[in-house]
Amino acid sequence: MTFWTSGRLWPKLMTRCVGLSICIAATAVGSACGQAQSVDLQAQVEGVQSQVGEQGYGDLTLDQLMQDLGVPGMSIAVIQDFEILWAKGYGVADVETGRAVDVETMFQAASISKPVAAMAMMRAVQDGMFTLDGDINDVLESWTLDGGGFTDHRPVTARSLTSHTSGLGDGFGFPGYDPGTQVPTSVQILEGHDLSNVGSLFMEREPLTFYEYSGGGVTVMELALSDARGRPFEEIMASDVLTPIGMTNSSYEQPIDPARDVNAARAHDENGSSMGPKWHVYPERAAAGLWTTPSDLARFAIEVQNTYRGTSTRVLDQAHVSEMLSPVGVGPFAVGFIVSKRGEGWYFEHGGSNWGFRANLIAHKVKGYGVAVMTNGDQGSALAAEILRRVELAYEWDSVADGVRRGYGG
User: Fold this and answer.
1) CA-CA distances (angstroms) from residue 110 to 102, 309, 360?
2) What are the structural domains of the chain?
3) CA-based torsion, 79, 80, 82, 86: positive or negative
4) How far apart are CA 407 and CA 410, in angstroms?
5) pLDDT (tens digit, 9 = 90+) per residue, 83-130?
6) Number of helices and strands (H, E) in the chain?
7) Closest CA to 1 of 44, 46, 45, 37
8) pTM of the model
9) Which of 391, 379, 359 is nearest to 114 (CA)?
10) CB under 8 Å to 224, separation ≥6 — which residues?
């Protein structure tokens, strides 16, 4: 585990470490104090808060809050100084077996699948497979998008598909399928085939007119990437993104491989009860199909941060990752991520909501901190929001900082 300190915290840390025999040498002092500070702040996140917050959850410990919201299990990874500072599992992964959550327990990332998939798409752009702003029909081979007259002046592109500004309408999320059910192909999903449990995709307006969240549009991008690479999508994700970053507890396989399912969480309803099947299957892999852990999501966010600051090229170069952090001009999205100003800082983020799973990932664009939270209950979004609030306060993020007041000193 990595621990972090800063010059701003140093006096406080020194005070806490006075009298410790292990703090004889300066290097030992820094190590011990850093560890003590990390433990203190973790306990601060887990305990009763000094501020109750808008939802009134601050007077509960994390364990009490999980019980109150009916969320059986949760896993957290906190990022500080471009590293995973700490990670921990809470509660149970499966109420039917009582198996505890640990840091390697896999959860469904739901829509956080989208920005991870967008990185693979950007890698294809970087490799010259297609362009970010070219007509997606020039990439597609197994299906053709009917523009319906809306693309006469501006085509649907990889950029617009991954920023939800393509003009495509679907009017649905993806509910998933019971295990053992015959699932549709990507083309069948887009066409509203009888095997699909959602309607067909259609053009609703000219591209870049408005922002409208479209999982169907991301499915078009998934199909285009597979057509361009000539390989199954889950294999592309493993070779181009997951493996280079070191996301060893992550997979886009749907259904999840039985060997990985041993440590996969069960889906639970709003009361924390089993819903029958352990989980749903999502053939819409790019939009909703990633199984992962908060630590792996943190590694993904750190890779974005490091590439943006020019210290990594494991997947993308600095210019191409910048597209993932630059809003396209319509709506809140860049390529794959929501990018927004929170307090005094700029952050990239995405949430996720699948059947019985909720998750959230947020990270600072330049300062090297963030947090990933994954849960196995339908009330997990409220829990993740409270975790974020607690982490922001404990680690003094600039999202909760007061801005500098302009004036003369003296």
Assistant:
1) 20, 28, 10
2) 10-46 (no CATH), 72-394 (3.40.710.10)
3) negative
4) 10
5) 999 999 999 999 999 999 999 999 999 999 999 999 999 999 999 999
6) 14, 11
7) 37
8) 0.91
9) 359
10) 130, 136, 139, 140, 158, 161
